[in-house]
Amino acid sequence: MSKLNALLSEYGESHQNSTNKLIHWFCVPLIFLSIVGMLYAIPSEQYFTPTDDSFFGSFKRINPASIGLIIALLYYTSLSRTMAFFFGLWMLICLGIVHWMYLTVGSNMNLLYLNLAIFVVAWIFQFVGHNIEGKKPSFLKDIQFLLIGPAWLMHFILKRLNIDF
Fold this sequence. Notes:
By secondary structure, the chain is mainly α. It has helices spanning about 5-15, 20-40, 65-80, 80-105, 110-135, 145-160.
């Protein structure tokens, strides 16, 4: 069994309840997106050259969010190149959504507060789901499960598409 499959299996042990699983399908992507948003909100203009404020500006700009996503992508690549490829697509979508949010709310502080609210509400639901499940969240045992949660959802998508990872 590969390391990724072992991690997914261990993660799945505390995610058997259908309500908890459903909550995870909504909240894990929201938590991931909100973390990208909070990192994106860190002012970085003095360190990195900003680009235009068009929708695609986020793809041309180096910022704390893009640096964090590169680090996460390296982790996913160490587990599975196929998984990493699809996570790369998800990360680009997240950057686009967060940049759109930034353009909509108009400032780094507003972006931070919006994503902090999403983060807190999504985690409240996650803990409700685990309370229903009757098991602690996996990351309390091992911090790397914070990155395995999104991979656990992605593996279901890849299996549905008949893509080996």
